[in-house]
Write a structure and sequence with these properties.
This protein has 137 residues and is mostly helical. Helices cover 71% and strands 0% of the residues.
Length: 137
């Protein structure tokens, strides 16, 4: 019989538990989500949001008409479906980009951790992105 692979004691002694990192990451994700959702409907609709509303307020075929909008249709198709599900209001308009922003936070963690091979780098990336006013508003 072959014996199971044994991790040397030295390697086990130097490993740190992952739960503190996970707790900090979860706290940063919750902070990022809260900042994106808090008072999302306190301002009137801005110019670019009005343009998006005009595009998605048409039928689905209009989304793919070349003169409808110069930007790629990925966001417009999702926003079209989002409005059909959640209604036509400023809060609903801002929740889809907020959702994409929150989903970008763990992706920034994974990217920074893989590029720099350090959990602290991943948490730093999430921290900066979670609090960035360009990404929050």
């Amino acid at each position: 019989m072959s014996s199971p692979a044994v991790v040397p004691t030295r390697a086990r002694a130097h490993r740190r538990p992952a739960w503190p990192w996970t707790a900090v990451l979860l706290a940063l994700l919750l902070l990022g989500a809260a900042l994106r959702i808090y008072r999302a409907d306190h301002q009137e609709i801005w110019g670019d949001e009005g343009a998006k509303l005009e595009v998605v307020n048409q039928d689905l075929a209009h989304l793919f008409w070349p003169g409808a909008e110069v930007h790629p249709r990925f966001f417009h198709v999702h926003l079209f479906i989002w409005f059909r599900l959640f209604g036509y209001n400023p809060f609903g308009l801002r929740m889809l980009p907020a959702l994409f922003g929150v989903l970008g936070l763990p992706l920034s963690y994974v990217l920074a951790r893989r590029l720099l091979a350090a959990r602290a780098a991943g948490l730093g990336a999430v921290f900066v992105l979670a609090l960035s006013p360009f990404h929050v508003s």
